[in-house]
C-alpha cells in the first residue's frame, strides 16, 4: 500500500465572500473563468468533468471541453450514440465540474441536459478542422473495435471519399446544453476552512445563495 497522507498543501491564494459575488452564478462563473485564464497554469481552462448515471446503474465521469456558455447554461458536443449520450437520453440529470488547481478553485454544477438545436450543432461542426470532422464520423464512440489500425484505415478511406468535398455533420453527433439548477463555487483557504458558496435555482427562477461549511 502506498501512503499518500503527507500529500498536502495550504490554500491561500484568494477568498470567496458574500460581499463580492453577483446575484447569479453565470456572472461569477464568467469572472472566475477569465481570472483563471489570465492567471495561467491551466492549459485548457475549459476542460470539465461530465458525470452521468450509466445504463448499468453506475455513475461515470469523463473530461470533455466546454465550448460555450451563456445565461441559459453550458454547451459541450459529443456523439449521441456514445455511452454518455445514451446515459443522458435515459437520465438527463448530470453534473459538471471544473478544477483549476492554479487558482485553488473548483466549480460543481448540477443541471439538466438537453440537445441543442440542429443549427447550433451544424454551426459548431462547420467550424471544426476537417480532421476533427472526419474523426467524429469515423468513430463509433464507446463501441469495441478490433485495433488502432482498424480506426486509422477507416479514417484514410473517409479522407479519400471526402477529398475536396464538404463534410456534413452526422445526425448522431451534436451538442448538449446543460441548464443549471445548482452551482457551487469552492475557493481553497488556509487550514482547510475553504469557502463554499452555493447558488440554488428557485421556483421564480431567481437564485438563492448559501454558505456551506467546508
TrEMBL record:
Known partners and oligomeric status: Homodimer.
Assigned protein family: Belongs to the pyridoxamine 5'-phosphate oxidase family.
Binding-site list for substrate: 67, 124, 128, 132, 192-194
Entry-linked InterPro entries: Pyridox_Oxase, Pyridox_Oxase_CS, Pyridox_Oxase_N, Pyridoxamine_oxidase_dimer_C, Split_barrel_FMN-bd
Protein name per its UniProtKB record: Pyridoxine/pyridoxamine 5'-phosphate oxidase
Keyword vocabulary terms for this entry: Flavoprotein, FMN, Oxidoreductase, Pyridoxine biosynthesis
This protein's encoding gene: pdxH
Tree of life domain: Bacteria
Pathway stated in the Swiss-Prot or TrEMBL entry: Cofactor metabolism; pyridoxal 5'-phosphate salvage; pyridoxal 5'-phosphate from pyridoxine 5'-phosphate: step 1/1; Cofactor metabolism; pyridoxal 5'-phosphate salvage; pyridoxal 5'-phosphate from pyridoxamine 5'-phosphate: step 1/1
PANTHER family: PYRIDOXINE-5'-PHOSPHATE OXIDASE (PTHR10851:SF0), PYRIDOXINE-5-PHOSPHATE OXIDASE (PTHR10851)
Cofactor: FMN
Organism: Flavobacterium magnesitis
Amino acid at each position: 500500500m502506498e501512503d499518500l497522507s503527507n500529500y498536502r498543501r495550504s490554500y491561500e491564494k484568494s477568498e470567496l465572500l458574500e460581499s463580492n459575488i453577483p446575484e447569479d452564478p453565470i456572472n461569477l462563473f464568467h469572472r472566475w473563468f477569465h481570472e483563471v485564464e489570465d492567471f495561467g497554469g491551466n492549459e485548457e481552462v475549459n476542460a470539465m468533468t461530465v458525470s452521468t448515471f450509466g445504463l448499468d446503474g453506475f455513475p461515470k465521469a469523463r473530461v470533455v471541453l466546454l465550448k460555450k456558455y451563456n445565461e441559459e447554461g453550458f454547451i459541450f458536443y459529443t456523439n449521441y450514440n456514445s455511452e454518455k449520450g445514451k446515459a443522458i437520453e435515459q437520465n438527463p440529470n448530470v453534473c459538471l465540474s471544473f478544477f483549476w488547481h492554479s487558482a485553488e478553485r473548483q466549480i460543481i454544477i448540477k443541471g439538466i441536459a438537453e440537445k441543442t438545436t440542429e443549427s447550433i450543432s451544424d454551426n459548431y461542426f462547420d467550424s471544426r478542422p476537417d480532421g476533427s470532422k472526419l474523426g467524429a464520423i469515423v468513430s463509433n464512440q464507446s463501441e469495441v473495435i478490433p485495433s488502432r489500425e482498424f480506426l486509422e484505415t477507416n479514417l484514410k478511406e473517409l479522407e479519400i471519399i471526402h477529398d475536396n468535398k464538404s463534410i456534413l455533420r452526422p445526425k448522431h453527433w451534436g451538442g448538449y446544453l446543460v441548464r443549471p439548477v445548482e452551482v457551487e463555487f469552492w475557493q481553497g483557504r488556509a487550514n482547510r476552512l475553504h469557502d463554499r458558496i452555493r447558488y440554488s435555482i428557485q421556483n421564480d427562477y431567481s437564485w438563492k445563495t448559501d454558505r456551506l461549511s467546508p
